[in-house]
Amino acid sequence: MKVCMFHLMPYRDLPADFDKQYKSAYIDPVWFDVADPKKVGQYYNWTLDEFIHAARSGMNGVCTNQHHQNVYGFMANPSLMGSVLARATDGMKVAIVQLGSTLPSTSPPTRIAEEYAMIDCISGGRLVAGFPAGLPTDATISNGIVPVEQRERYREALALVQKAWSAKEVFAWNGKHYQLPMVNLWPRPLQQPHPPIWIPGSGSATTVDFVVDRDDSFCHLSYYGAQNAYSLGDFYWDRVTKRGRDANPHRLGFLQLIGVSESDEAAEEYAPHAEYFFHKLLRTAPQYRDIPGYQDHASLVHAMKTPLRERFDVRDLRYKDFVDRGFVITGSPATVRDRLIEGVKRLRIGHLLTLLHFGSMPHELCMKNITLFAREVLPHLQDLWDDEWEDRWWPESLRQKRPVAAAAVAS
Amino acid sequence: MAAMPMRKLRLWQDKIETEVAIFGDGPPLVFLHGSWGLRNDQEFLELLARTHTVYAPKHPGTSEGDSEAVHQIDDWWDLIVYHGELLDRLELKSPVLVGHSFGGLVACEIAAAMPERVSKLILIDPVGLWREDMPIKNWMLLSPADLRAALFADPKGEHAEKFFQLPSETAERIDAQVGFIWSQACTGKFVWPLPDKGLKKHIHRIAAPTLIVWGKADGVIAPAYAEEFARSIAHARVAMMDGAGHMPHFEQARSVAALVGEFLRN
C-alpha cells in the first residue's frame, strides 16, 4: 500500500461569524473583506513545510489539488506547489502526486501536459499524474467553461495530453474543443509512455467505467470517511470484476481525515479544527454546485429517480458525531491504526490519502500530527497488500519498499 | 390543457431529432422558447393559435429521446444554420418570429443573419445585449428563492406556484425535474458565462417590424434593456407590461397575446 499526505491549503483563521455572513465558502467571500494577505503567504509556506515534513518522515507521496475562488482550499495552480515539492524532495523516494490540474479549466490542455512533464523531469520521474474532471464551481464559474461541455472537454483534453506526451512525430490536433497546428512538447515526461494516471471521481458509474476501462487508478475523495463508503467501494470492485480487471487494491485511492494524539482523550485537540472544516469550509451554495449541464443526462435522470438518502445537515453535527460516524479518525496511535486498518481492508484501499491538515489546524499541531502518524501508524500500514500485489500505478523508480525506519531517523 | 400536438423532424445530417409543436390556423408564426424549455408557454400559444398556425420547436437537446443533440451544435453559427434548415423543413418562407428570453436572442440572430426569412419579429424579455451598469443575472446560478423573486412580479402568485410545481405522479415528476435542469443546460450552452455573444454587432441587420414586450418587474434582465433593443433595431416599438416579470407571456398571457395580435394585424 502507498500512504500519501493530502492537503487542501485552506484559510485557517476565518472570523468566528464567517458562516453567518457567507452562505458559501466558494465564490461569495470577498478577498479584501476576508483575507489577510500576509497570513495567506504564511499558509502557503506552512503547507509546503507540512508536505516536506511528511515526505521526510516516510510518507510515500505528497498530493496537491486545484481549486479556485474560495476559502476551503486555494491551490489555484497545483503545479506551482508540485514543482517546489519536486525540488524540495530531490533524491527522496517520494512521489509527487498532482491530484491535480483540472483539464477542462485550462486552454490549451497542452499547458498541463507541459507542467506535468516539467515536474516529472525536475523530480527525476516521480510524478503521479492525477486528472480530476474538476468541480463545476471551479470550471464553469471561476474558469468560464460551458457546463454541458465540461466532460467532453475533459475527455478530449486527456486524449490530447497523452498523445502529446508520447507521439514520436510532430502532429496536428483537430479536435472539437482544441485545435493546434503542430504539437511537439518540450519537455516530455521521463516516465514513458506516460506517468501513472489517477482519476478522482464521486463514484458515478460513467466515471468508474471510464477509469476501469482505461486501466487507470480511481480515487474517491470523500470527506465522510471509509466507514461511510462501503457501498461505493463494493460498487467499484463489482464494476472492476464485471469489466474484466483484476482486484489489485492499488486500483483504488481513498481520502481520510486523520488526527493522531498521545491518547484518545488528548485527541480532543482536533475538535475545533474538524468543526471549522465541516461547518465553515465544506459549504458550497447548491446553485454554485449543481449547475445545469454538469451532470450528463443519464446521471441526472438517475439522480432524480434515486430516492433521497438520509440527508443530514453537517452543521447540526459536532466533533463527537464526526468521530462516531467515522468522518474523522482521531485518537491515540493505536486507535487510529486499528480504525484505519479496518477501513483500508474493508474497502481494499491501495492508495491511502491522509488529510493530516484540516480546517483551522495550526501549523504546530499539523506537524505533530504528521510526526505521530509517520512514526506510530504508518509502519503498520505500508506493507499491506505488498506480498500479493504490485502497485502498477506508481512511479517505477519508487516501487521498491521504502525503508521507513531509516527515513524517520534521518528527519 | 391537452398536450400540444408534436411533429418529429430529423435534421442536421440526421444527427438531431427535433420535436415541433404545430397547431392553430392562419399565417405561420414560429415561437422560440426560453431557458426553461417549452413548459409554461402553452396558454399563450393557444391564444396565438386562434389567428396563426403556431410552430414551437424545441431547442436542440430538449426533445424527448434526443438529449445528446446538445453536443451536435457547437456555436452560434451552427445554431443559425440549424434554424435555417428547420425553417426550410417546415416549409416556412417568411414567418412571424416570436422569441422569449434565450429564444428572443435566437430570434434576433436569425432576423439579423437572414432578414428575408422573418416577416415580423416579436421579442419578449430577450437576452443578448449587455450594459456594464445593468448586469444580467445568471439565472443558472440563482437559488430557487432568488430565481422566483427575479422571474415574477408576484413571487407568491399562482404563476410562480405553477412554474415551480412538480407533478405528483413519479414518472411525470422525474421528467419535469430533469427537463427543468436539462433545458437550462442546453440553452445555457450558448449564453454561458454571460449572454453577450455578438448581437450588438449584428443587430443593425434586423429589418423586420419589431415589437419588444417587457415585464416591468423583470428581475433577470432590467426593463431598461427594452429601450436598448428598441434603439438598435430599425423598426421597433416597446410595450411595457404591468404585473409581469421576466415571463409576461406567462404571467399576463391574455394581455400579451392581445398586444401581439394587434401588432400582427397592422
- Tell me roughly what share of residues is in helical segments of chain B: 25-40%
Distance between the termini of chain A: 22 Å
Following the backbone from N to C, one meets helices and strands of chain B in this order, namely EEEHEHEHEHHHHEHEHH
Number of helices of chain A: 16
What do we call the CATH homologous superfamily of chain A? Answer: Luciferase-like domain
CATH class label of chain B: Alpha Beta
The stretches of 5 or more residues of chain A where confidence is low (pLDDT under 50) are none
Please state the CA-atom Rg of chain A, rounded to the nearest Å: 20 Å
User: Overall 3D geometry of chain B?
Assistant: globular
Which pair of chains forms the biggest interface, and how many residues does each contribute? A-B, 21 and 24 residues
Distance between the termini of chain B: 30 Å
Q: How does this model look, in words?
A:
The complex is a heterodimer of chains A (411) and B (266). Chain A has a single domain (2-410), classed as Luciferase-like domain (TIM Barrel), CATH 3.20.20. Chain A is 40% helix and 13% strand. Chain A contains 16 helices and eleven strands. The two termini of chain A are 22 Å apart. The longest helix of chain B has 19 residues, at 170-188. Chain B is 36% helix and 18% strand. Chain B has an eight-stranded mixed beta sheet, with helices on both faces. With 266 residues, chain B is an alpha/beta fold. The chains are: A alpha/beta (411), B alpha/beta (266). The A-B interface holds A 140-141, 144, 146-149, 152, 176, 285-288, 291-293, 297, 300-301, 304-305 and B 61, 67-68, 70-71, 74, 140-144, 173-174, 177-178, 181-182, 184-186, 188-189, 192-193.
